[in-house]
């Protein structure tokens, strides 16, 4: 269900500029599929509904959804853009709330291509008196309480990258201990000795239960050679 | 009463110590992941998918269904005690549940929830036992056009009807469909999107996709959120964990109404228990307004009873839809479908015929799981609450290790691990920007079915698109789909209006 919308004067994360990552991913996928479909060496007689049919459908879907999502993220939203973050509390709610709900009802997330132009003209008057795009951007770029902890994410991702690199050499137990340590550190735990011991315990438990008892093979690394 | 004989046969199969052990393990794990915020039954089953390489089908599948139901028993604990529902399915019951806890009735709130989940699950399982064979025999006549309609129905329902934003749901669907295309095209043998890499010829394993998106994505998302202010004060349950006669009298009608609301939603691919739990909550609230002393807002027992019953009733009939039609209606059901496929079993009309013994043992397992879950949850709720004290750093570090293990066990290949990393980062991006994950899983699992049945239907009819809507079943499915879309649009509109007033 939808969370209650609070008029904070700041766009929620999924409508911020950063959210454009998602349409970018979709466009990237579309290009990947487009290239793959064009270069596909079809075995036998493809026919009208051959191995390339579904890829074409998905290619179109990716590009269309990317475009619609970009529009959904960038389109003016009086409820967030019209009110600069700093003055939220002092702005009388009356008129702003009205345009907010009007816009929400006609051009909500389920708006389709056909009524997109309609929505555009509808919302324009709402944004004009309030603000120019500049303040809207400032609101979106200001450090939000729901900001991303970049160092923590990089530590966790780095832990996985490291795990993938060292797994063939160090074997499961040591690599997994490293991964455990990296993720725990990313989540703010700095008590190194307990973390490493816990990681060692979890990695060994997985090794014992799944590998020794259930027979799923794991790389031993040099530890296995000892 | 053939069903009863079959069910008794199923009970005979699973009343062995080893099968009971798996029922118990599943219930235990399910409750645990339900209790812990951020984890869920979908992630737990995904992480345990590698067990399908070594366990017997019945043992693994019984454990997984135990996790599915257990997740819905446990999810209310964190919600009631800390006001942070562990899963979206517990949001509706948390409103009144947490208020009950604040009034010192935490134990009774938890008991109301657990008994509600039990009633909902039992009723739904009974209905599944009696109607699954009928549904399956109805579906044996399904041809390519019907399967295509079913897949399209699932796609649109899960992405447009369930997700808060239709365009974001469809974005997730597109990602899933793209992933499903990688690998050899079965009918023609054409390698697709593998670009010469032999590791990609078999496609991206469903284990890799589910584990990466659900588990690793959540680990990264937790890292991204680290440092934000969090309110982690929990109200600990004290006192009697049973309900007084007066409380039962109040809760009983709500349990039954919740069950009635939840049952139909399991068969509709509405993405699990979220919609019915909110409908059940809304119904109770409207009824409460007519009472002499309205209790909503002060910790109404009905506000806990109905959504909890609805949640598990949905899960029960969702299993029925999965077994009889091969139609996954929630993320966890989708992963369960993947678990069946690991064993070369295809849920759907033919499953009951070909592997009836497994199905009946599984259905018998539902009933046992409910009983075990009720026992685990009623008196031991305070113990489960202690799980909330596990530090997040240890919890998510362990999940990362299990995820890495699951992916490596799936294929022992470094390529899979690299894909895991990419999809994990994708999972993070999706969580940050409100793109739902469930449509990806449904698309990955039903994508091939949709594609191959479309091509079959077209080849059989000399490319006449009319074949897609030529049978009554296809027409009914498309009509239902349109009705669902209209209802969703109306509901969103009504919500906006309600927020207005």
Automatic annotation (TrEMBL), chain A:
One Pfam family it belongs to: TctB
Record's keyword annotation contains Membrane: yes
Answer whether the UniProt record assigns the keyword Membrane to this protein: yes
Give me the segments passing through the membrane. Answer: 20-43, 55-74, 153-180, 192-216
In which residue ranges is the amino acid composition biased (Low complexity)?
Answer: 92-116, 126-144
Highest rank taxon of the organism = Bacteria
Q: Where is the DUF1468 domain?
A: 21-219
Q: What is this protein called?
A: Tripartite tricarboxylate transporter TctB family protein
Question: What organism does the record attribute this protein to?
Answer: Pseudonocardia nematodicida
At the highest ranks, the source species' classification is: Bacteria, Bacillati, Actinomycetota, Actinomycetes, Pseudonocardiales
Automatic annotation (TrEMBL), chain B:
From which domain of life does this come? Answer: Bacteria
Write down the species. Pseudonocardia nematodicida
Tell me the protein's name.
Tripartite tricarboxylate transporter permease
| Positions of the DUF112 domain | 20-441
Regions that span the bilayer: 20-49, 61-81, 109-132, 138-158, 165-184, 204-224, 321-340, 360-381, 393-411, 438-454, 466-487
Q: Keywords assigned by UniProt?
A: Membrane, Transmembrane, Transmembrane helix
């Amino acid at each position: 269900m939808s969370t209650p919308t609070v008029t904070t004067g700041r766009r929620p994360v999924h409508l911020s500029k950063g959210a454009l990552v998602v349409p970018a991913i979709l466009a990237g996928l579309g290009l990947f599929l487009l290239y793959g479909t064009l270069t596909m060496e079809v075995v036998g007689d493809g026919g009208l509904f051959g191995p390339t049919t579904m890829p074409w459908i998905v290619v179109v879907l990716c590009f269309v959804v990317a475009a619609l999502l970009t529009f959904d993220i960038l389109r003016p939203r009086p409820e967030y853009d019209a009110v600069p973050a700093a003055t939220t509390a002092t702005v009388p709610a009356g008129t702003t709330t009205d345009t907010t709900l009007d816009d929400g009802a006609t051009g909500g997330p389920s708006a389709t291509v056909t009524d997109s132009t309609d929505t555009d003209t509808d919302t324009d008057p709402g944004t004009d008196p309030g603000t120019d795009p500049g303040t809207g951007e400032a609101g979106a770029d200001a450090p939000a309480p729901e900001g991303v902890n970049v160092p923590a994410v990089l530590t966790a991702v780095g832990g996985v990258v490291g795990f993938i690199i060292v797994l063939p050499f160090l074997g499961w137990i040591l690599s997994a201990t490293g991964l455990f340590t990296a993720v725990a550190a990313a989540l703010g735990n700095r008590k190194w000795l307990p973390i490493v011991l816990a990681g060692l315990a979890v990695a060994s438990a997985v090794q014992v239960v799944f590998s020794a008892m259930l027979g799923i093979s794991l790389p031993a690394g040099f530890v296995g050679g000892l | 009463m053939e069903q009863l004989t079959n069910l008794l046969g199923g009970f005979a199969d699973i009343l062995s110590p080893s099968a009971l052990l798996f029922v118990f393990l599943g219930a235990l794990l399910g409750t645990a992941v339900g209790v812990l915020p951020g984890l869920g039954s979908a992630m737990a089953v995904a992480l345990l998918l590698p067990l399908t390489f070594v366990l017997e089908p019945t043992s693994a599948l019984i454990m997984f269904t135990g996790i599915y139901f257990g997740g819905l028993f446990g999810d209310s604990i964190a919600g009631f005690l800390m006001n942070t529902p562990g899963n979206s399915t517990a949001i509706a019951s948390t409103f009144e549940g947490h208020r009950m806890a604040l009034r010192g009735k935490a134990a009774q709130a938890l008991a109301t929830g657990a008994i509600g989940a039990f009633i909902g699950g039992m009723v739904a399982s009974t209905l599944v036992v009696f109607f699954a064979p009928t549904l399956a025999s109805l579906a044996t006549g399904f041809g390519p056009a019907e399967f295509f309609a079913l897949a399209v129905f699932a796609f649109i329902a899960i992405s447009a009807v369930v997700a808060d934003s239709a365009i974001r749901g469809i974005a997730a669907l597109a990602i899933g469909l793209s992933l499903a295309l990688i690998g050899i095209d079965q009918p023609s043998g054409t390698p697709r999107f593998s670009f010469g890499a032999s590791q990609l010829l078999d496609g991206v394993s469903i284990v890799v996709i589910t584990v990466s998106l659900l588990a690793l994505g959540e680990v990264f998302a937790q890292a991204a959120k680290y440092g934000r202010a969090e309110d982690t004060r929990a109200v600990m349950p004290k006192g009697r964990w049973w309900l007084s006669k007066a409380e039962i009298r109040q809760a009983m009608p709500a349990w039954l109404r919740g069950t009635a609301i939840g049952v139909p939603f399991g068969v509709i691919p509405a993405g699990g228990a979220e919609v019915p739990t909110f409908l059940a909550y809304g119904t109770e609230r409207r009824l409460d307004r007519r009472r002499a002393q309205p209790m909503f807002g002060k910790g109404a027992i009905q506000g806990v009873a109905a959504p909890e019953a609805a949640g598990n009733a949905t899960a029960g009939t969702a299993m029925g839809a999965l077994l009889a039609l091969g139609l996954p209606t929630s993320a966890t059901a989708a992963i369960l479908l993947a678990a069946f496929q690991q064993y070369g079993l295809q849920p759907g009309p033919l499953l009951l015929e070909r592997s009836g013994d497994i199905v009946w043992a599984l259905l018998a397992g539902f009933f046992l799981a409910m009983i075990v879950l009720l026992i685990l949850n009623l008196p031991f709720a305070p113990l489960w609450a202690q799980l909330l004290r596990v530090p997040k750093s240890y919890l998510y570090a362990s999940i990362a290790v299990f995820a890495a293990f699951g992916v490596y066990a799936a294929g022992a290949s470094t390529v899979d691990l690299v894909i895991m990393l990419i999809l994990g980062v994708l999972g993070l991006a999706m969580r940050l920007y409100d793109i739902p994950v469930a449509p990806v899983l449904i698309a990955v699992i039903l994508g091939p079915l949709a594609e191959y049945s479309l091509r079959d239907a077209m080849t059989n009819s000399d490319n006449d698109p009319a074949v897609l809507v030529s049978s009554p079943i296809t027409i009914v499915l498309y009509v239902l789909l349109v009705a669902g879309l209209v209802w969703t649009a109306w509901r969103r509109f009504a919500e906006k209006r309600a927020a207005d007033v």
